[in-house]
Write a structure and sequence with these properties.
The structure holds 2 protein chains of 2 kinds. Chain A has a single domain, classed as Aldehyde Dehydrogenase, Chain A, domain 1 (3-Layer(aba) Sandwich). Chain A is globular, with a radius of gyration of 20 Å. Helix content of chain A is 43%, strand content 18%. Chain A is α/β, with parallel strands linked by helices. Chain A has 10 helices and 10 strands. In chain B, the strands form 4 sheets. A 7-stranded mixed β-sheet of chain B has the order 13-14-15-12-11-16-17, with helices on both faces. Chain B has 2 domains: 260 residues, Aldehyde Dehydrogenase, Chain A, domain 1; 188 residues, Aldehyde Dehydrogenase, Chain A, domain 2, CATH 3.40.309. Helix content of chain B is 38%, strand content 16%. Chain B is globular and about 65 Å long. The termini of chain B are far apart. By secondary structure, chain B is of the alpha/beta class. In chain B, 59% of the residues are buried. The longest helix of chain B is centred in the first third of the chain and has 22 residues. In chain B, α9 crosses α10. The chains are: A alpha/beta, B alpha/beta. Chains A and B meet through β4, α9 and β10 of A and α8, β17 and β18 of B. β10 of chain A pairs parallel with β17 of chain B, so a sheet runs across the interface.
């Protein structure tokens, strides 16, 4: 009896909780590092990116207004959902990155653990970086971190899952909504991750995932007036200055950390990168 | 506003006449000429010698020798050497002691600095004396204490300085802004090249004297007077590691663009168009004082000024009438007079800008009101001005005026107040006036602004982080948070 013929998956975008193809109708071939064709991924256009930004903007009030406890649970839920599909992701990471399945599995596990780590930060972060300020006068004064808003993220090019999770988790756990442009050549684990997100109680639009050509999408993300901050670490070195320049149009916060040692504990840097400190004063008196 | 009383309040008959109570200008120890401070020494700059004038009477105060590009090179080189050889390696407790010395010296010379500031800037002596100078001293005192405790500040166990900071500050709080920039930078182990604003260099150059007398090692602080070209030369200099800028959003964007690809760290404190929101249950007398303080403090030359008054429709007429009554009692005139509430506009250029914006307000259909108010014949003056019936689309509701001009808008519900308050590319500050605690906290949560004053306005403290959301910039000055901009 003949071997069962495999069903091949269509890899699409993830925008506002839905899975559209690119409105442009374009796709691009994705191969293993050895050159074997894996799939044709959607090649997102400027219009897709703008749809992603507007979905993210719509999601900001609800997500930033959710309790920190709730955000922590949702991010933890992403970890749970991912954990249930370890083998699938190990296979996809192995194919995308050309590593052995055992090494890929270790990355999947690290990605799950990273989500759990960040999930726990949701309701502790403000206590660590905020607090009361002892001003010299009869005033109660406190500072708290608040989400910056819509954050554009250019995901790392090499680490298709662990790197991706490591850059988006701190953005959403602090209450931002985001548009992520995946690794250009290794996008498939990210697309599968969007299926995980869709079943994780994450509100639609909080995390939007676009596959495509980084150098084509990044300038639109950097110059978009309704994007408040951008992580350009995943952009090629030669592209970064242009992106920083475009970001000045609306005084975007620009984050750049070329360090890609994803195995180490990340610290607070990415958590503090996409928050604004708000300070509130009130008189004290009878 | 739907209905507005057209009755103009007259100036009430004063119970007491105010006798002139001028502070003596001698206290300012004004020198005939001022030099730039580079590598521990005062010297003439290679730029032009310009006269700085007193905006209250347009008379020259002193000659200031401005820096040229070569001086910026020298200053940056000196700062680099000082960072590598002296200030960077120095024990935090010793850096702290230098900063404590500076704080004390500012306190000791407080009267002199206050008079000098009022002469050069035009702000009332009661403000330079009670706000600018003591807060500047407090800033040094606050950050002095951090210098040997950086490992406890929450930025990792062994935080490091960044290197040489290029700092450009505005003319509205000349000494205070210098303190905001220099104190945290030095505490964190950086060295600085600071450019004061072209129209207000005197107190920064006097601070240089204090720093020299404190025996701060040569090159740790360099102060180069000059105009925008020198500011540009400084922020675009290859030898600096960090840019700290306070000024307009327009220039901030230029700086952010020019820093692209350089790897320089950047913090920006830019413009604002703050909403000061008054609910119908607010304590009205206090609210009116807060509105006045919010927009007329420092002639409105304040980036976080409460320049948009959002008042609940039900009390709009009452609030505007009370405000107009209060404004008729403000005293405009000699900045050195201790009774003066409103001083001079800092420069002819700024006065022209305020006139242009105010004329736009009238042209766009808003109703303009100023108290009966005699302006001095010489100098740069603008009366306190209130616009009612302002639409959200009007330029005077959208653009920063940086002058004593208040735009009044109304709202019906808290949700509408939030929407209007946030309807701006800026996000520096906001005010809330209401007796209801839960509403204060809800509003504070909803407003997209870095500083929210509830039942108060325009309070500043070295322990309190200050800075903007959105196009009002990024980074914080003050408090533990203020160290982050100067640690690597």
């Amino acid at each position: 009896m003949a071997e069962r013929l495999a069903i091949r998956k269509t890899y699409k975008l993830y925008i506002g909780g839905a899975f559209p193809r690119s409105e442009s109708g374009r796709s691009y071939p994705v191969s293993t590092p050895d050159g074997d064709l894996l799939a044709h991924a959607a090649r997102a256009s400027r219009k897709d990116l703008r749809d992603g930004v507007s979905a993210a903007r719509k999601a900001v009030p609800g997500w930033s207004g959710a309790t920190a406890y709730n955000r922590g649970q949702v991010v933890y839920r992403i970890a749970e959902m991912l954990d249930g599909r370890r083998d699938q992701f190990a296979a996809e990471v192995a194919a995308a990155e050309g590593v052995h399945t055992s090494a890929a599995l270790a990355q999947v596990d690290a990605a799950i653990d990273r989500l759990v780590w960040y999930a726990g930060w949701a309701d502790k972060f403000a206590q660590v970086v905020g607090g009361t300020n002892p001003v010299a006068g009869p005033y109660f004064n406190f500072s708290i971190p608040e989400p910056t808003g819509v954050v554009g993220v250019l995901a790392p090019q090499s680490s298709s899952l662990l790197g991706l999770v490591s850059v988006f988790a701190p953005v959403i756990v602090t209450g931002n909504a985001t548009v992520v442009v995946t690794s250009q050549d290794r996008p498939l684990p990210a697309v599968s991750l969007s299926e995980v997100l869709a079943t994780s109680d994450l509100p639609d639009g909080v995390l939007n995932i676009l596959t495509g050509i980084t150098a084509e999408l990044a300038p639109w993300l950097a110059s978009h007036k309704d994007v408040n901050a951008i992580d350009i670490s995943g952009a090629a070195r030669g592209l970064r200055a242009d992106l920083q320049q475009a970001a000045a149009d609306n005084v975007k916060r620009v984050f750049l950390d070329p360090d890609e040692s994803w195995e180490a504990e990340p610290g607070l840097r990415r958590l503090t990168a996409f928050v604004e400190t708000k300070t509130v004063w009130h008189p004290v008196g009878l | 506003m739907a209905k507005k009383s057209t009755a103009k309040p007259d100036r009430p008959t004063p119970v007491f006449e105010y006798a002139p109570a001028p502070e003596s200008r001698e206290i300012g120890r004004l020198k005939p000429s001022y030099q730039i401070f580079v590598d521990g020494a005062f010297r003439d700059g290679s730029g032009e010698a310009v006269k700085t004038i007193n905006p209250a009477d347009e008379q020259p105060l002193a000659e200031v020798s401005e820096a040229g590009p070569a001086d910026v090179d020298d200053a940056v080189r000196a700062a680099r050497r000082a960072h590598t050889e002296v200030w960077g390696p120095m024990a935090g407790r010793d850096r702290a002691k230098y900063l404590f010395r500076i704080a004390r010296a500012i306190q000791e010379r407080a009267r002199e600095l206050a008079v000098l500031e009022s002469l050069d800037n035009g702000k009332p002596i009661k403000e330079s004396r009670d706000v600018d100078v003591p807060t500047a001293a407090a800033h040094f005192f606050y950050y002095a204490g951090w210098a040997d405790k950086l490992g406890y500040a929450g930025f990792g166990p062994n935080p490091r300085s960044i290197g040489v900071a290029g700092q450009v500050i505005p003319w509205n709080f000349p000494l205070l802004m210098a303190a905001w920039k220099i104190a945290p930078a030095l505490a964190a182990g950086n060295t600085v090249v600071l450019k004061p604003a072209e129209t207000t260099p005197l107190t920064a150059l006097t601070l240089a004297e204090i720093i020299a007398e404190a025996d701060v090692p040569a090159g740790v602080v360099n102060i180069v007077a000059g105009g925008p070209a020198i500011g540009q030369a400084l922020v675009e200099h290859n030898g600096i590691d960090k840019i700290a800028f306070t000024g307009s959003t327009e220039v901030g964007k230029l700086i952010q663009r020019s820093a692209a690809g350089t790897g320089k760290r950047l913090s920006l404190e830019l413009g604002g168009k703050a909403a000061n929101i008054v609910f119908e249950d607010a304590p009205l007398d206090q609210a009116v004082e807060g509105i006045v303080n919010g927009i007329f403090f420092n002639q409105g030359h304040v980036c976080c000024a409460g320049s948009r008054l959002l008042v609940q429709e039900s009390i709009a007429d009452e609030v505007v009438a009370a405000l107009e009554r209060r404004l008729t009692t403000l005293r405009l005139g000699d900045p050195l007079d201790k009774n003066t509430d409103i001083g001079a506009i800092n420069s002819a250029a700024q006065l022209a800008r305020i006139h242009e914006m105010a004329d736009t307000g009238t042209a766009e259909g808003a109703e303009r009101w100023s108290p009966p108010c005699e302006l001095p014949a010489r100098g740069f003056w603008f009366p306190p001005t209130v616009f009612t019936g302002v639409s959200q689309a009007s330029r005077i509701a959208r653009e920063e005026i940086f002058g004593p001009v208040l735009s009044v808008l109304t709202f019906r519900t808290p949700g509408e107040a939030v929407e209007k308050a946030n309807n701006t590319p800026y996000g520096l500050s906001a005010g809330i006036w209401t007796e209801k605690g839960s509403r204060i906290l809800w509003m504070a949560n909803q407003l997209r602004a870095g500083v929210v004053w509830a039942n108060t306005f325009n309070r500043f403290d070295p322990a309190s982080p200050f800075g903007g959301y959105k196009e009002s910039g990024f980074g914080r000055e003050g408090g533990r948070h203020g160290l982050e901009a100067y640690l690597g």
